Amino acid sequence: METIKEKAANGIITEEMEIVAKEEALSPEYIMKGIAEGTIVIPFNKKHTSLKKIKGIGKGLRVKINANIGTSPYHMDLEEEIEKLEIALKFGTDSVMDLSLGSILNNVRKEIINRAPVMVGTVPIYQVGFELSKKKKSIEEMKIEDFLSVIREQAEDGVDFMTIHSGITMDAVNSMEKEGRILDIVSRGGAFLVKWMKKNGKENPLFTYYDEIISLLKEYDVTISIGDGMRPGAVLDSTDRGQIQELLNLGELAQKAWDAGVQVIIEGPGHIPLNEIEANVLLEKKLCQGAPFYVLGPIVTDIAPGYDHITGAIGGALAALYGADFLCYVTPSEHLKLPDTNDVKLGVIASKIAAHAVDIVRGKDTEWDRKMSESRKRLDWEEQINLSLDKEKARGYRESSEIGEENVCTMCGKYCAIKQIIEAEKG
Amino acid sequence: METIKEKAANGIITEEMEIVAKEEALSPEYIMKGIAEGTIVIPFNKKHTSLKKIKGIGKGLRVKINANIGTSPYHMDLEEEIEKLEIALKFGTDSVMDLSLGSILNNVRKEIINRAPVMVGTVPIYQVGFELSKKKKSIEEMKIEDFLSVIREQAEDGVDFMTIHSGITMDAVNSMEKEGRILDIVSRGGAFLVKWMKKNGKENPLFTYYDEIISLLKEYDVTISIGDGMRPGAVLDSTDRGQIQELLNLGELAQKAWDAGVQVIIEGPGHIPLNEIEANVLLEKKLCQGAPFYVLGPIVTDIAPGYDHITGAIGGALAALYGADFLCYVTPSEHLKLPDTNDVKLGVIASKIAAHAVDIVRGKDTEWDRKMSESRKRLDWEEQINLSLDKEKARGYRESSEIGEENVCTMCGKYCAIKQIIEAEKG
User: Which residue from B minimizes the CA distance to A370?
Assistant: First the structure.
C-alpha cells in the first residue's frame, strides 16, 4: 500500500487532500505539493474509522490546535476523559492527544479513538512503561521489541500520529549537561529515555532503531511527530546547546522518514522568552526543511502557575505568527495538577484565540471578526453572543449586567461611543 | 514653580527621579535625561499625597500596567470601586484610571485618589459631561471654560495624569469617513468630541484651546496622556488613515506640551491584528519622538468576548516587546459589561503576565523566573506557590489534586520527568 506521502510524491490527489483543500480554500494540487515536499501533513490512520474531521497541518493552512487529555496514575476516570474530549471538541480543537498513564490507559485510548471525530495522537512510550511494569520491569529494561509491539498495537487501534523521542541522543544530553540547566529534562518521554541511556550506557534505542520504527509506521501510514525530549522547562534554559543539538537531529530524522514515505511533524518547546520565539521557529523551518512545527505553548514566563493557558497563548500566538503550524494547548493547571474538564475548556479557548489571531493575519476566517464588528455597530447583542467563541460565557456576562432601558452595555450606558456616533450621524 | 520636565531639562535630579532610578536599577542621570528628552515620565501630582509608589514609565524601564476602574450610570457602588482598587493593587497594577460615569463620579474619584498609593489617571471630559447634564445641557454645548474648570478641580484633587483627546481633529474624522470603517469611533471621549464638532461645525475645542489646557496642566505639573479618539474598535479597521492622521497630530501636540514643560504619554489602540503591532509601535515612537506609548490591549481578534483579557494580553505582550511602555489592561467583561471585582483581578493578572514576559526580555526581574524554576527542580511545592503571581489560585490547584505519597503532581505522578532525572542523576 502506498502512503499518502508516496501518493503525493507520485502526483496522486487523494480524497483526504481534496477534503483539506476544500476546507482551506486552496487547490488540491497545493495540498498535494505540500505533502510531497513535507511542508503539509494530513495525519489519518485508516483504522481510525470515526475520524470525520480530516485536517491538514502546515504551510499556508489555518493554524491547528491540540488538546492533551488522559489519565494520571493518581486520577483515573474514563468518563471524565470522555467529557474532556467532548468539551475540547465543542470549543474547536483540531486534534486530541491521549497521554494517559496508569492501569486503564489502554481502555482510555481505545475509547477516545472510537469517539474522536478529530485526529488522535499518543506517546507510545507511556504504554511501553506500563506494559513493562505489569511484568515487574522498569523502563530501563525496555527492548526495542517492546516499543515496536506497542506501536503496532496503537496503530491497529487507529492512532493517527505518534510522538516518538528519537532525537534525544547522548550527544544532545552531553551538550546540555556540559552547559548546565536549571531544569534538565522536563519531557516525560525524554526522561524515560535518559534514564534508559544512563542505565544501559548506550545510545537512545529510538534513535538506533529509527529505521525499524519508521518502517512500522509506514505500514499503517501513521504520521511521526518527532518529540523534543530536550525542550527547555524554564524560560532561562531556552535555546541552549542541548535543545539545538536535538533539533539538528530532528532535521536528519525528518529526512529519513520522508525518504521512507512517512509524514513528519516536528515538536518544539516549551518555555521560551518572547524575543527568542522568532528564531526558534526559523531554526526549525530551516533545519527541518519546512516540516510542520508543533509547539507546546510556548510559555513565555514561569511566574504564573494557574494561568499558563495565558502564558501559553501569548507564546503560541507569536510562534504561529512566525510560522508555527500546530499549537499544543496549555491549561491553567499546568505545573500543578492533571487538568480537569474546566481546565481543558480554558486551555482550548486560549489556544483557539491564539490560532485564530494568526489565521486572520493569514487572511483566513476574517469574516468571523467582520461579522462580530458589524453586530457591534448595530448594537445587536444576540448576534454578538451567537458569534462569540464561548456563547454561554458571553451570555452570562450580558445577562448579569444591569442593562437598563437603552440598547447598550453597562460599561458606558447611554454614553456608549457607538450609540453616540449613530446619533451624531443621524444629526 | 518648575515642573519635573523643566527641572530635568535644567539638569536637576529630583527625589522622584532618585526613587525611580533605584527601583529600576538605573542611574538618576538616566532617568533625568529620559524625562528631559520626553522618553520617560514620572506622573506625580504633588496634591496626590497618598502616592507612595512613585513609578516611571518609558524607555529602558519595566513595562507598567494600568487598571481602569470606575462606575457606570447603571452601576454605581463606591464600596465596590474601592474593592476593585484594592484587588488591582494586590496583583501589582502600577496605576489606576478612574473612568467613573454617573452621579457619584466626583465622590468616587476623590475616594480613589485618597486611597491610591499608585498614580491615578482620569478622563476629565466624563465629568464635563456630568456637570453639563446637571445644568440640563448636552455635551455639544460644552464651552472650553467648562473643560478647564473640570481640569482644575481634578488637578486640585490630585489626579496624576489626564487623558485629553486633543488629537481628534476634523481632518482626522474626515479621513476616517472618506475611507470608511466598520466601527467608526469607539472611544467614549472621542465620540463626545465628534458629536460636538458635528453639531457646532467647528474644530475640536480641545485642539483649538490646547495651549490653555497645557498651561493649566503645567500649573499642577499634571502629565497629559494624549488620547486616541480615533483608535480602531475592530481588528479589520486598524491602522487606517484616520488613525494615522490623529497620530500625526499627537506628535505635534506632544512637542507643544514638552516645549511648555509638561510631561506627555501617547495613547494607542485598541484593536490591531498581530502583524500590525510592530508597525504601530514604531510609528508612535517615530512620529511622537519616543514619547512613552500607552496601549489599550491591543486586542488581536474580536471573536472572544468573555476572554478579552487574553486577546489583550497577547497584543500587549507583543506591543511591549516592540517598545510599548504602558499597558492598559482589558478585562474578560470588555465589550459586554462593566467589570466587577473578579474581572478586575483577571485583567490585572493577564496584563501583568504580558508586562513581566517583556521585562525578562529587557533583563529585568529574571530572578523571579529563576527562583520558580529552581523550586520546580527541588519539587518544592510550597515555594512554587509562594512565588506564584496568584498564590491562592496556585494553592487551590495544588490542594484539589490527589497528590498521593510521592512529592510530585498528579499530571505525571511517579513518572514526573523532574523526579526521574533526579533519580537518574543519583544513578
Answer: B236
Question: Please, what's the b/e burial string for A79-113 (b: 16 or more CB within 10 A of its CB; e: otherwise)?
Answer: ebbbbbbebbbebbbbbbbbbbbbebbbebbebbb
Chain A CB contacts of B337 below 8 Å: 397-398, 400-401, 409-411
CA-only gyration radius of chain A, Å = 23
A353 → closest Cβ in B311, B333, B427: B311
Contacts of B102 in chain A (CB under 8 A): 413
Of A185, A409, A413, the CB nearest to B336: A409
- Signed CA dihedral, B174, B175, B181, B186: sign only: negative
**Which structural domains are found in chain B, ordered by start?**
4-361 (3.20.20.540), 366-426 (no CATH)
Grid cell in block for residue A189: 518521554
Mark yes or no for CB contact B415/A73 under 8 Å. Answer: yes
Q: Compute the distance between CA of residue B270 and CA of residue A358 in angstroms, rounded to an integer.
A: 17
Check whether B404 has a pLDDT greater than 80: no
- pLDDT tens-place values along chain A, 427 residues long: 899 999 999 999 999 999 999 999 999 999 999 999 999 999 999 999 999 999 999 999 999 999 999 998 888 899 999 999 999 999 999 999 999 998 899 999 999 999 999 999 999 999 999 999 999 999 999 999 999 999 999 999 999 999 999 999 999 999 999 999 999 999 999 999 999 999 999 999 999 999 999 999 999 999 999 999 999 999 999 999 999 999 999 999 999 999 999 999 999 999 999 999 999 999 999 999 999 999 999 999 999 999 999 999 999 999 999 999 999 999 999 999 999 999 999 999 999 999 999 999 999 999 999 999 999 999 999 999 999 999 999 999 998 887 766 788 878 888 888 888 888 777 5
Three-state secondary structure string covering chain B: CCCHHHHHHCCCCCHHHHHHHHHHCCCHHHHHHHHHHCCEECCCCCCCCCCCCCCCEECCCCCEEEEEECCECCECCHHHHHHHHHHHHHCCCCEEEECCCCCCHHHHHHHHHHHCCCEEEECHHHHHHHHHHHCCCCHHHCCHHHHHHHHHHHHHHCCCEEEECCCCCHHHHHHHHHHCCCCCCCCHHHHHHHHHHHHHCCCCHHHHCHHHHHHHHHHHCCEEEECCCCCCCCHHHCCCHHHHHHHHHHHHHHHHHHHCCCCEEEEECCECCHHHHHHHHHHHHHHCCCCCEEEECCECCCCCCCCHHHHHHHHHHHHHHCCCCEEECCCCCCCCCCCCHHHHHHHHHHHHHHHHHHHHHCCCCHHHHHHHHHHHHCCCHHHHHHHCCCHHHHHHHHHCCCCCCCCCCCCCHHHCHHHHHHHHHHC
List Cβ neighbours of B14 (8 Å cut-off, separation of 6 or more).
B4, B7
Do B389 and A358 count as a contact with CB atoms less than 8 A apart? no
Give Cα separations from B366 to B356, B359, B373, B425 (angstroms): 9, 8, 11, 27
